[in-house]
Amino acid sequence: MRRSLPLWSLLNAVLAGVLAVAGMAVPAAAEPPPSRLWSVPLSGVLRVCTTGDYPPFTVRDSGGNYRGVDISLATELATMLHAVPQWVPTTWTTLTQDFLAHCDIAVGGISDTASRRAVADVSVATVTDGKTPVTRRSSGDAYSSIDEIDRPEVRVVVNPGGTNENFARTHFPQAQIMVWPDNLTIYDQLSHGKADVFVTDSIEGLYRQREYPDLQVLHPDKPFDSAAKVYLLPRGDTTFNGVVNAWLQVQISNGRTTALLGDWLS
Fold first, then answer.
1. Can you give the pLDDT at residue 25?
2. Three-state DSSP class for 5?
3. Phi, psi of 186, deg, nearest 5
4. Of 115, 209, 212, 260, which residue is most buried, by most CB within 10 angstroms?
5. What percentage of the chain exceeds 90 in pLDDT?
6. CA–CA distance, 100 with 244 (Å, rounded to integer)
7. How far apart are CA 247 and CA 238, in angstroms?
8. Between β-strands 176-179 and 155-158, what pairing exists: parallel, antiparallel or unpaired?
9. Least reliable range by pLDDT among 21-25, 122-126, 134-138, 254-258
10. Which residues pair with 60 in a beta bridge?
11. What pTM was computed for the model?
12. Mean pLDDT (the chain, rounded)
């Protein structure tokens, strides 16, 4: 272990700095634990699972480049860990499996759910959001409530595998559930009149309605539910997860997360 001590000393300094800024106690220096806090700087790579289809949190452009609120934060987190981000493409259906098999963290508008907590730890909440209807402006307020949506003649479009589909299948058993595989083009189904309503997180709806002026987000300030947006973290890696959470808490406290979200929604 002698060759590793200089790097471990560096990591202890990083840990001490992050925890001190966050106002947390700094643990005594120790030999390297089996933690991502050791392996990530050693490899120089932070492996980040992300779907790339959920703006403003994560979006992959036609050139294969990732952008978004959580992409920016994950890039800055990697820099703090003396690493560079490696984006690992995933889908909402395979998110947890891909995270467990291939990634150090997962980011991109991920809702905190019991099923995800069953296999991974989660970070502090970066933002809190909720499900709300997106419809054509010509529909007025016809689909404002769950009861108004949950009717046999209503066509509800969903993207597969995530909380949007789960919410629709739970709350709209009488409606026509239409699964559309591409979350980036799902709004075309509404705009072209092939679906009546899409229930998604209000932040995503507010961002996407700028691209579709014929669409509207109903009562975004009063969503149907409330859920924290979090990062998936390795189960039981308290050393690494503690540093990530402390760093995130600093970004929240100093307004960095709010500023990034404002830039995307403005």
1. 54
2. helix
3. -65, -30
4. 260
5. 86
6. 17
7. 14
8. parallel
9. 21-25
10. 66
11. 0.86
12. 91
